[in-house]
Amino acid sequence: MGVLVGCSRIFLVIINGIFAVIGLVFLVAGCIVRFGSGILDPYLQDLYTSLQRFMEQAGQSVDLSNFNLGDYLQDATLALILLGVFFFIIGIFGCIGGCCKVRCMLIVYSVLISLIVLAEVLFVILLFTIRDTVDNNIKGPMKTSIEDSYTGFNSTDLVSLGWNFAMVNFKCCGVDNYTEFQTAKKWIKDYTPKQSNMSITLAVPIACCKLNGSFPNINLPTEFTCATDPTSALSNIDKGCYQAIWDIINDNSNIMIGVGAGVLVVELLMIILACIVCCKEKKKNDDYDYDY
User: Which stretches are transmembrane (predicted)?
Assistant: First the structure.
């Protein structure tokens, strides 16, 4: 029993040490992007240059010298920071609880990991039992972002950049199809190509066209029939980005299932090991109380 407890403590310290390091990495990365994005500027200069070149090609003169990545990714950085804190706390509880045999920390640790496992299992069950409801709950905010915030192909706001990135790189248009842009309140349909200086009226965003390259490193077409009079041959009008993302997930389903199963096994193993150490300490304390 002593060997089992000793091995359990070693595994708890090692695995949770990794959790703590991962959490610390997430926390530091989130803080750097949110509060010190200037540190990343030298490493992102190529991206900024490509984005500025793309904007100029799209007919929009943009000065990215004062571009602040943290301002664009506020919600994402906050989520990353919170995730980092969560991982770090779990890792510390598991490490200290396993190393120093602190029962209260091991109990809290086991409860937290158990809740995570339950949430993961519940999510998978819901995903396959009420797929339509899950899809609608995810699609709703996506469609709302198009309707309320999407402004166009040559815009620099976060929502427009995000949708342009998704539609170009995933070869798709809208959430389900191009019709969602018909109700986009802020989308500027009048567009003047830099090549011709003649205004055209777009039926779908230019990002829905079948373009070569990855955003923002793409070459715009010489004429924009793909956006003014779109067809399935010229544009991705019939392929939604939601389904495109699911296609990518399905194509890599074996890898994702393997990773998910591995994570679940590790989580269950950590719960079992924590319980072993915890029960051993309880028995030790009970024996001590009995002796006195």
Answer: 12-35, 76-99, 106-130, 255-279
> Taking the CA of residue 280 as centre, how many other CA atoms within 13 Å lie in the half-sphere pointing to its CB?
21
Q: What string of pLDDT tens digits covers the 292 residues of the chain?
A: 567 777 888 888 999 999 999 999 999 988 888 777 667 666 666 766 776 676 666 555 555 556 666 666 777 888 899 999 999 999 999 998 888 888 888 899 999 999 999 999 998 888 888 888 888 999 999 999 999 999 988 777 888 888 988 898 899 999 999 999 999 999 988 887 776 677 888 999 988 998 887 777 777 777 888 989 999 999 999 999 999 999 998 899 899 889 989 999 999 999 998 888 888 766 665 544 444 4
| Chain centre to alpha carbon of residue 204 | 27
For residues 3 and 94, what is the distance between their CA atoms, to the nearest angstrom?
A: 19
